[in-house]
Design a protein that fits this description.
Blueprint: E1 2-7, H1 11-21, E2 27-33, H2 36-46, E3 50-54, H3 62-67, E4 74-79, H4 82-88, E5 95-98, H5 103-119, E6 135-140, E7 143-148, E8 152-158, E9 161-166, E10 172-173, H6 177-183, E11 189-191, E12 196-199, E13 203-208, E14 214-218, E15 223-226, H7 228-238
Parallel strand pairs: 1-2, 1-3, 3-4, 4-5
Antiparallel strand pairs: 6-7, 8-9, 8-12, 9-10, 11-12, 13-14, 14-15
């Protein structure tokens, strides 16, 4: 059973979707919201597995709302703006459903939810800590992504911002490296030096470096230096 929230400014659209979902017993609608502010409150309060999210709403859009979440649940967009949504945003959402929603398309979208759940190990432990199985929403200019943290090679400090390196992308997020370090799971993400946090699972090679430090070769060809102080901790962690 998946717990879902419907976030849409149109009351009739929420009612119609809720009606369609009554034919799908694996989904339990546990809340509704008419705008982004209410949506954030419901997500914080109810901790859903899935949100059905309208793109265009008064005030903040659905994408604006996602930016305010530390951790994004599974998202299925519901929108009347096919061209706008598909051209402006590159996100790994489960699906886009065009209004009026067709029952078969809804069933197909939920099948993608099952597939995604099968691929992901359930994150256990403190919800405040982000594990490699969690996904975050990242926006840089007009481009947006849902990024699974296991796909991130490293984070790089840029003042009060941080660059997130994944695939061929490196968007900036408004989050300091210190703030990120507090949220990321230690067994996967390691503070290599003052400017970098690396994903330990992305390391392909470790070399000795000058002044007692280490040099990490990451997948994708990146090289990150581990400071002398952090090299001691790294060796202890990795039992070198």
């Amino acid at each position: 059973m998946y717990k879902a929230i419907i976030i849409d400014d149109e009351r009739l659209a929420r009612a119609e979707l809720k009606k369609l979902l009554t034919d799908l017993p694996e989904i339990e609608v546990i809340g509704e919201a008419a705008n982004a502010k209410e949506g954030l409150e419901r997500i914080e309060e109810l901790n859903p597995d899935l949100i059905f999210l309208d793109v265009q709403m008064p005030g903040k859009t659905g994408f604006d709302m996602l930016l305010e979440l530390d951790k994004a649940p599974h998202v299925i967009f519901t929108t009347a703006y096919d061209e706008f949504a598909l051209k402006a945003f590159e996100v790994n959402a489960l699906d886009y459903l065009m209004k009026p929603i067709v029952p078969q398309r809804l069933a197909d979208a939920l099948q993608k939810l099952h597939q995604a759940e099968e691929k992901e190990a359930a994150a256990v432990g403190n919800r405040g800590v982000l594990t490699e199985n969690d996904q975050v929403f990242v926006k840089d200019g007009d481009r947006c992504w849902f990024v699974k943290l296991s796909e991130v090679r490293y984070f790089e400090s840029v003042g009060n911002y941080a660059k997130v390196y994944f695939g061929t992308h490196k968007p900036l997020i408004l989050k300091s490296l210190n703030a990120l370090e507090e949220r990321l799971e230690e067994k996967t993400f390691f503070r290599a030096n003052r400017k970098h946090i690396v994903n330990l699972r992305m390391i392909e090679k470790v070399e000795s470096y000058f002044n007692g430090g280490l040099l990490l070769d990451l997948k994708g060809g990146d090289k990150i230096e581990v400071s002398r102080r952090q090299a001691v901790r790294f060796k202890e962690m990795m039992s070198l």
